[in-house]
Amino acid sequence: VHSMDFDDTWHPATHPSGAVLPAVIALAETFPQKKKISGLDLLLAFNVGVEVQGRLLRFSGEARNIPKRFHPPTVVGTMGSAAACAKLLALDQLECENALAIAASYAGAPLANAATQTKPLHIGNAAKHGLEAACLASQGLQGNKQILDIESGIGAFYTDYNPQTLPTLQSYPWLLEQQDVAIKSFPAHLGTHWVADAASSVRRKLVESSDNFLPLDKIEKVILKVPDVKYVNRPSPTSEHEARHSFQFVACSALLDGSMSVHSFTRENIQRPALWELLSRTQLEHSPDNTPSFDSLYCEVSIILRDGNTISDRCDTFYGHWRKPLKKEDLEKKFQSNASSILPAEATEGIIETVYSLEKVEDCCVLSTFLSGQS
C-alpha cells in the first residue's frame, strides 16, 4: 500500500499504520497457541505504536509541517513499531526504554528518495527494525535510556525538538481520540488531494458533461495555488512514483478526466499527449498564508481562458480528510479493490468482518489466516 502512496496519513505528518500493523501481525503469529494474542491485545499494541509516533511528533513544531529533510515514518515509525512490539511482548519498563533506544539507532532516511522506487523501503524497514529492536531488548541488549530526552537522541532529527512530561495514565488522553487520520481515495501524496478536488470542480464548471473533452484549445494557462512543498513540485513527471508526487500531474489529470483513481498513474495515462500539453501551460503559485500543513493547507485551481475569462475553485478540505472522512461504504470499496488482485473474495470479506469485531476476537491469528488467502 505504501509503495502506491495509498496509506493513511496523520497530522503532524506521517503514515502511522504502515510501520506498526505489519510488525504486530507478524509478531503475533510467532506466539504459541497457549499464549495466543487476542484481537484486543493486537489493537492495544497497535494503538500504543501510533500513540508513540504522535507524541514524538508533537514535541517538534517543525514536524507539524510537511517534512523537508527526513521521511517521518523512518523516524517515528521505527519508534512506533518498537513500542507496539514491546507492548505485545509485555516488556517491562527498562526493556521498553532499551527497545526505543535501539530503534532510534535504526531510525531516519532522507526525503530525497521520495518519488522513487526506494521510498517504499522506508516503511518496510521501519516495521522490521522496530520489531527487531523490541526482540533485542527482550534479550537484554541495552541503549541510552535518555534517547527520547536529549538533542543527540531523537532530537537529532528535529531542530526544535522539545520533549514534555506526559499526563499520568489516570488522566491520559489518547491522540487518536483527538486527531483522526486521513484516508486517501486515490494513491498519491496527500497534498495532491486538495488539488484533485479543486481541479475536478473547475472541470465541472467548464465542461457541461463528464463525457465531453476538456477544451484544450480554449485554455491559455492553468494556475495552481498550493503550499511550497518542493518534493511535490514536479512539472514533468516521467514515472508513476514521480506522478504520485506532482501537484501538476494530479491537477491536469483531474482536469482532463474529472477525477483521480488507481488507473490515473498507468504509463499510458502519464504519457498521453493531452496531459503533456496541459502540463506545459501549468504553473504554481505560493501564498504566504498557505502553510505546508495537512491541517491547514488549501489549494486553488484557476483556468485562464484565451477569451480572458477565468474559472476557479478552491479546496480547503478534501473528501477523505479527517474533517471530511470517507463513508464506510467507500472505505470498504477501497479495501476490496486493493485486495481483489491478491485475495479471493471470501478472504477479503473475512478480513472486513474480523476488523469490525477485532476487540472480540480471541485469537488474532484468524486475521493472518485471511491475509494469507485462506477462508
Describe this structure in words.
- It is a single chain.
- The chain has 375 residues and is an alpha+beta fold.
- The chain folds into 3 domains: 8-179, 2-methylcitrate dehydratase PrpD, CATH 1.10.4100.10; 190-315, 60s Ribosomal Protein L30, Chain: A (2-Layer Sandwich), CATH 3.30.1330.120; 328-372, no CATH class.
- It is 41% helix and 6% strand.
- It is built from 14 helices and 4 strands.
- It has helices spanning 21-28, 39-57, 72-88, 93-104, 119-138, 175-178, 191-206, 240-243, 247-257, 267-271, 273-279, 328-339, 345-356, 365-371, and strands at 219-225, 282-285, 299-305, 310-315.
- A 4-stranded mixed beta sheet has the order 2-1-3-4.
- A hairpin with a 4-residue loop joins β3 and β4.
- The two termini are 22 Å apart.
- The relative contact order is 0.13.
Order of helices and strands: HHHHHHHEHHHHEEEHHH
Structural class: alpha+beta
**Number of helices in the DSSP assignment:** 14
**What's the Cα radius of gyration?**
22 Å
How would you sum up the major sheet? 4 strands, mixed
CATH fold-level label of the largest domain: 2-methylcitrate dehydratase PrpD
Q: Between the first and last Cα atoms, what is the distance in angstroms? A: 22 Å
Q: Name the beta content range.
A: 5-15%
DSSP E strands, number: 4
The coarse overall form would be globular
Helix content: 40-55%
Which key phrases capture this entry?
375 residues, alpha+beta, 2-methylcitrate dehydratase PrpD, 60s Ribosomal Protein L30, Chain: A, 3 domains, 4-stranded mixed β-sheet, 14 helices, 4 strands, 41% helix, 6% strand, globular, protein homodimerization activity, lyase, innate immunity
